[in-house]
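Quick one, tokens below:
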């Protein structure tokens, strides 16, 4: 069966438990139709880049599904009709990665759980610490205006 990733944004007015019931409904329907839910991630209540239907925040959810086309079309129809869903994106993918998505990994790094490739140590010295180049020995790298003395 084909593999799909489903990402949707739910209104911020509803609770996380209500979002979970929406996802549980999709999972229950998937089991009855013979589809398999391979990945289920709740990304949390996040700020939207721009307002969507007068909402500034939304609950983000990612689902990885192994399902037939008819099931995906039915899920798409149901989620579009649901008033609590602001946006929906369904993509057909080659494989579903079992590792946590980059969104969850970054969320863990903010809490101090994962520091895979980024170091928390500040860089000492250099150009980007203060925004200016160092001026060792009283020399400066920039060229100033030369005043000839005649006024």
């Amino acid at each position: 069966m084909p593999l799909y990733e489903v990402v949707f944004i739910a209104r911020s007015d509803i609770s996380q438990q209500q979002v979970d019931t929406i996802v549980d409904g999709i999972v229950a329907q998937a089991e009855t139709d013979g589809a398999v839910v391979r990945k289920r991630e709740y990304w949390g209540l996040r700020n939207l880049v721009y307002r969507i239907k007068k909402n500034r925040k939304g609950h983000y959810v990612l689902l990885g599904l192994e399902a037939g086309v008819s099931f995906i079309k039915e899920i798409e129809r149901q989620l579009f009709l649901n008033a609590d869903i602001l946006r929906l994106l369904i993509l057909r993918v080659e494989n579903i990665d079992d590792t946590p998505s980059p969104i969850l990994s970054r969320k863990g790094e903010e809490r101090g759980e994962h520091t895979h490739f980024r170091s928390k140590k500040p860089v000492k010295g250099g150009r980007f610490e203060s925004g200016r180049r160092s001026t060792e020995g009283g020399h400066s790298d920039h060229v100033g205006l030369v005043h000839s003395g005649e006024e």
